[in-house]
Amino acid sequence: xxxxxxxxxxxxxxxxxxxxxxxxxxxxxxxxxxxxxxxxxxxxxxxxxxxxxxxxxxxxxxxxxxxxxxxxxxxxxxxxxxxxxxxxxxxxxxxxxxxxxxxxxxxxxxxxxxxxxxxxxxxxxxxxxxxxxxxxxxxxxx
Length: 142
Hints:
Mean pLDDT: 91
CATH superfamily: Phosphotransferase system, mannose-type IIA component
Largest sheet: 4 strands, parallel
Shape: globular
CATH class: Alpha Beta
Low-confidence stretches: none
CATH topology: Rossmann fold
Strand order of the largest sheet: 2-1-3-4
Distance between the termini: 45 Å
Order of helices and strands: EHEHEHEHH
């Protein structure tokens, strides 16, 4: 049996999810994911239904990786409950642009957990302070 792609669901506060995905797609092309936005005042039960629908929509038979913006937030907590109930799903918090860019080169057939590891590693490597880079010319930038 052939491996099936892992679906990707992005769950974020407010309206910045679509523009963040658009920025990534402008650089690397279509990412084939779904964005669910959550208003800060949203009822957790409503959030749960919306996220559950998003997971169902993205599940192509290879599980789903849920990317959230803020660990410990209501959306992330709801995602954690839903993802925790499924062996073929994983959740990764701290959504950022490098994470989305890495999606373009990841093997989506590797499964949600492996995909999460790759995205986390790539995201961590992209975080740096100017002064921490030895021998770096501060005026030239990154």
